[in-house]
């Protein structure tokens, strides 16, 4: 099992419960493909480096998980089409 860190940038214009649902969907994707979520780090609302879809701020979430090497690709395919996710990045955690 490899360790990964998934960064998800979520739309700041949606309600708190909708934002929580987006994070829960991402966590469910990890577990559905055989991964194990170890930690979710919420950074809160941050200013974006550049405008994305006419937005200057967004919420940042860092989801740490363990899984096989094929799982991050599967998760990224599903996150790519999710509403309210502005950007995402999954990297292997070497620590």
For the biggest sheet, the summary is: 4 strands, antiparallel
Broad shape? globular
Mean pLDDT: 93
Q: Tell me the strand order in the biggest sheet.
A: 2-3-1-4
* H/E topology pattern: EHEEHE
Number of strands: 4
Helix content: 25-40%
What is the terminal separation in angstroms? 13 Å
Number of distinct helices: 2
Radius of gyration, CA atoms, in whole angstroms: 13 Å
Could you say which structural class the secondary elements and strand pairing correspond to?
alpha+beta
Ranges with pLDDT <50 over ≥5 residues? none
Strand coverage percent: over 45%
Describe this structure as you would to a colleague.
The chain has about 100 residues and is α+β, with helices and mostly antiparallel strands. About 30% of the residues lie in helices and about 50% in strands. It has helices spanning about 15-30, 70-80, and strands at about 1-10, 35-50, 55-65, 85-90. It has a four-stranded antiparallel β-sheet, covered by helices on one side. Strand 2 (about 35-50) and strand 3 (about 55-65) form a beta hairpin. The chain is globular, with a radius of gyration of 13 Å.
């Amino acid at each position: 099992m490899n360790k990964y860190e998934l960064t998800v940038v979520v739309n700041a214009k949606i309600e708190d419960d909708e934002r929580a649902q987006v994070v829960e969907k991402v966590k469910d994707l990890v577990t559905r493909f055989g991964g194990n979520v170890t930690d979710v780090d919420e950074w809160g609302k941050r200013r974006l480096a550049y405008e994305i879809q006419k937005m200057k701020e967004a919420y940042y979430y860092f989801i740490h998980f363990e899984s096989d090497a094929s799982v991050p690709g599967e998760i990224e395919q599903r996150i790519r089409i999710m509403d309210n996710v502005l950007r995402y990045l999954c990297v292997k955690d070497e620590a």
